Amino acid sequence: MKTFNILVSDERLKPVYDTVLKRLTARGMELSEEAEFTLVLETDEAMRPDSYRITGKPEMITVKADSLINVFAGVGVFLYSSKFDENGIIPSDMRGYKTPDCSERCVYTATHFHTFYWMAPLSEVFDYYEDLALMGINRIHIGMPFLGEAEGNKEIEDAFSHLAEIQKFIKSLGMKLSTSVATSCTFLPVPDEAKTQKIFDPYGLRCEHGNKACPSTKVGQEILDKQNRMVLGEYKKRGVEIDMISTFPYDEGGCGCEKCSPWGGNGYIKAAKRAKAVARELFPDCKLTVSTWLFDSPPSGEWEGLSKSLENEKWCDAIEADSHTKYPRYPIDVKVPGGLPLTAFPEISMWGLWPWGGYGASFFPKRYTKLFRATEGKLDGGRMYSEGIFEDLNKYVVSGLYKDFNNDPEKAVAEYASYHFGLKETEKFVEMVNLIEENHVKNYDRVKINLTPENNLTDFSLAERALALAKEIDGLLPEWGKKSWRWRLMFIRANIDYHRYNNEVMHENPEVVTLMHEIMDIYHCIKDYSVEMDPEHFKLRPPLPATDNAFDIKRYTRTSIGIAYNNGLINVGKPIEHIKENDTMRGNEA
């Protein structure tokens, strides 16, 4: 079916109309009054909350939901389960009434380190949030990072205004909006008497990031109150409504003084309660999610302290738990503190690659499915931590698990290929993804960019097969799929892996260098980068000496735990001046 029409029952559904119109025309279809395929969009507030229904014959499908964002979710399920090729859409046979298994389906779109979310033209950023809505994401966590001193920074007003444009667009899609509040980290100056003390961290997991104030000191808590009032006030005066706030204990944050220890079961609790009180001065109905990232690493009574604090006072609304590797067992095997909703914080960007986005697409659907299933169905969703768009496939797989605990990761991978690339037969793509993931997992703790036979644990035959499949798939795609930035990142990953796992010095290979430049264009990385611009941006970009004025192979060979944030608030200004709205760096949107 090459021609289509979209009918809406309510002007409030125009964001879905506009989104679907762009996606179908990008796939070579044409809008027509005499359409072969018609999509009808309706809302019914009497429906069960957080639900949608798909009905109709192949030539006329109706998606009805209780709200705008759930119409997005229902349309997304239908589109991803349909087939797309050079002849347009082959409508899905998906029908029925669905309420997702998990109510919290959130992505944390990080803006520090000059990520895509901060650097790309707003038109591209907005398109991507529409894509997330179609995946069934119903909340976005986004905010201003506070990692170093920046009081009086002349660019901060522009930074808040830029962020507010993004936040308001997110709300226009019907999504909820959350942001971070300070429990120790601040970009305000901290006098010596209010500074935090070092945390006990024998395993080196928690890091010591941030400019931090101790909430157990009067001055320190006053600084944190000022920080939270200022940041939330900047959102408020720009017309941004915050639905939820979130606190985070580590990596940024924490105090090891006698009055705060153990941090997660003591000082952190006091600071989180206070942050909620301050937040409700500006947003009276906002909820609080308390993260327990790296609690009891090593065991120090943090989980027990949090549980005890919630026995008689439900001072927060949800508990978020996760770690670098396996999901914490305390809330699964012992209890969820306060009997509150439990969510995850899946790290979908950084695991197993260095630099994280340096080689194109990053994905591990089987690993995340295994991690999710280990929670025994006790989760009410989660907040995926995203450093960019290179892990887009991970987002689709995890969002699928939030909708259906038993969702098959290979089925999700196949749907992704059909919808985004127009691939008719998806078996080869599923095989390619499995091969790349298998090698990724084998080598996950190898943080050197230039591997050698001594530190390379991969199976090169898998990389050879993955590249052969990528080339074969590339020849099968319709033009719109071949040009899709998502496919380009997949194709590039298979190519770079072939050279990387063959122990080559990548930045000395002209073919690899060309591919890495394409990655930089897709991400909108800083060109002519230097550490002074942002000491952490190198973690997201390909390791290219030609575009990194301070290229240091050692920096790309080990993590930079303990790096000093001494350049002020990370990326507080407007996006770098050379990024213009008319840039066509990501190729054709599809």
Low-confidence stretches: 558-590
Amino-to-carboxy terminus distance: 18 Å
Predict the CATH topology of the domain at 104-407: TIM Barrel
CATH homologous superfamily assignment of the domain at 104-407: Glycosidases
What about the largest sheet? 8 strands, parallel
Any idea what the shape is?
globular
Determine and state the CATH class of the domain at 104-407: Alpha Beta
Based on secondary structure, the structural category is: alpha/beta
Number of strands: 16
How much of the residues is beta strand, in percent? 5-15%
What is the CATH-assigned architecture of the domain at 104-407? Alpha-Beta Barrel
Helix content: 25-40%
Q: Give the helix tally.
A: 17
Strand order of the largest sheet: 15-14-13-12-11-10-9-16
Could you tell me the radius of gyration in angstroms?
24 Å
What value does the average pLDDT take?
A: 90
Structure notes:
- The protein is α/β, with parallel strands linked by helices and 590 residues long.
- Among the domains are: 3-98, Chitobiase, domain 2 (2-Layer Sandwich), CATH 3.30.379; 104-407, Glycosidases (TIM Barrel, Alpha-Beta Barrel).
- Helix content is 36%, strand content 12%.
- An eight-stranded parallel beta sheet has the order 15-14-13-12-11-10-9-16.
- Strand 12 (244-247), helix 7 (267-282) and strand 13 (287-291) form a beta-alpha-beta unit.
- The chain is globular.
- Mean pLDDT is 90; it is low at 558-590.
Short characterization:
The chain has 590 residues and is an alpha/beta fold. It has helices at 14-26, 68-81, 116-119, 122-134, 156-172, 218-237, 267-282, 302-309, 330-334, 365-373, 392-403, 409-421, 427-442, 460-474, 479-483, 485-500, 510-523; strands at 3-8, 30-31, 37-43, 52-57, 60-65, 83-85, 88-90, 96-98, 104-109, 139-141, 176-180, 244-247, 287-291, 318-321, 342-344, 381-386. Among the domains are: 3-98, Chitobiase/beta-hexosaminidase domain 2-like (Chitobiase, domain 2); 104-407, Glycosidases (TIM Barrel), CATH 3.20.20.80.
